[in-house]
Amino acid sequence: MPDAVSTDFSHSTVRRRLFELFNNQTEALTMTQTEKPSNNGKVVALAVAGAFGGFLFGFDASVINGAVNAIQDEYALTATLTGFAVASALLGAAAGAYLGGRVGDRYGRIPVMLLGSIMFFVSSVGSAFAFSVYDLVLWRVVGGLGIGLASVVAPAYIAEISPRAMRGRLGSLQQLAITIGIFSALLSDALFANSAGGAGEPSLFGIDAWRWMFLACAFPAAVYFVIAKILPESPRFLVLKDRETEARAVFTRLWPNGDVEREIRNIRASIKEDALGQRVGSLRGKTLGLRPIVWVGILLSVFQQFVGINVIFFYSTTLWKAVGFAESSSLTISVLTGLTNIAVTFIAIALIDRVGRRPILMTGSIGMTLSLATMAIAFSQAVTVDGEIALPGAWGGIALVAANVFVVFFGASWGPVVWVLLGEMFPNTIRVKALGVAAAAQWIANFLIAVTFPSMAAVSLPLTYGVYALFAALSFVFVLTKIPETNGMSLDEASTLLPPRNAAKIAARTASKQGEVRSGREAALRR
């Protein structure tokens, strides 16, 4: 695991930054206290609009849940090929996340949103009318590209328009939008399947219900395109491109009572300091070829997926059918799980700027470990009755409760908080690129979990969930040892996330010495 001690900033730079932060506390407090609620309405509205990409991200990724069995029957797929068909969108998502960072840095956040909306629309129509599993995979990859673009640009955009006091809550809107998208996909799956009498049965105009599940994504994709056309560009991107007049206009409109000039000065200073250490915008470093802060983002993303959360949202209908539930009941359970996911995201939104990032993540890790271990034990009790697998006695209920407890702890912690951290932890000049790399790693990890689940489940469900429980336990250790707290920092202050060891003590001693020098000068003047 990469060392969390960054080499990106010199000791002198960090001492100066921390000393400046110390002396600016009164100014920052005054600025925060003078901000009025009237400032916040426009910011919240833009953050909600920017997060709409997260809705499509959740919808497009999860819509296949209700269609898995129908697709498997339609094209006579093996477990391995089924897993690949489900996970193929995630390969596109990894590529989209990686490319999104570069496109976003070169052309801006808004063009990336527009491109993503087009890909969502094309994927929706193409998947709905696929004539074989091969072109279905192709259209799912196109949709995955849109998912990847949305996963990069939405958290970056929200972080870059948000005041520091609201950034955690507004950043959580990305995860809330994802959970609403997941719920909407699961709900539409259930409605189409139940109204037709099954996902593989004809529905409206004689088109199979599973095809309507994919087609349903076309409408929100069109809405996202319209939203992206009316959003202003990120002011931080404008400063990076020397378009400060435009950036100032955006900040003034968003924060009419805020200190716009101070914010622009902070952005300029952050960009200048990044340029002192290395070539502007480079992700390269001495730790296995990357900067340590980038590795932290990558590992955060990997742990978020290796706990197996998307098995619930990709395969829950198949999972519950495999242990004895009927298709209609399995779909209903999936919808309720999606609704639970939405509800608990509000908990994270309420607590993230009060409690902080680290405590929420560590609490979530503990809860996920215990609930996943409980699911492993429950599935180990499965028996075969008349050729059908079932969970005897109370074990079916225990498995259901444990699965939803797992969703509760994930949705209130690792779901939203990881996106907030990824949106705020990187320096300005690499923010979107680093987000792209971290999001790409997340999608690759997601792909590995999704593509291996059918085969692993066929071997042993208890072993599968035992592995997920192990990664949940390891995520606690990772946060405890590698993740510092960023709550209450400005976006530019948070980019000094991993300073050299003892930098705070050095800065305090420097401040003390400078204070003594000033006192000596004043005494000399009085003489």
From TrEMBL:
The cellular component terms of Gene Ontology attached to this UniProt record, alphabetical and capped at eight, are: plasma membrane
Presence of the UniProt keyword Transmembrane in the record? yes
Q: Does the keyword Transcription apply?
A: no
Q: Which InterPro entries match?
A: MFS_dom, MFS_sugar_transport-like, MFS_trans_sf, Myo-inositol_Transporter, Sugar/inositol_transpt, Sugar_transporter_CS
Chief subcellular site? membrane
**Which segments cross the bilayer?**
43-64, 76-100, 112-131, 137-158, 170-192, 212-231, 293-313, 333-352, 359-382, 394-422, 434-457, 463-481
Stated membrane topology is:
Multi-pass membrane protein
The highest taxon in the source lineage is Bacteria
Subcellular location per the Swiss-Prot or TrEMBL entry: Cell membrane
The record's section on PROSITE patterns has:
MFS, SUGAR_TRANSPORT_1, SUGAR_TRANSPORT_2
Keywords, sorted A to Z: Cell membrane, Membrane, Sugar transport, Transmembrane, Transmembrane helix, Transport
Name one matching Pfam family. Answer: Sugar_tr
Matching entries from NCBIfam families are given as: SP
Q: Give the family, as the similarity comment puts it.
A: Belongs to the major facilitator superfamily. Sugar transporter (TC 2.A.1.1) family.
Protein's name according to its UniProt entry: Sugar porter family MFS transporter
Q: Which organism is the protein's source?
A: Cryobacterium cheniae
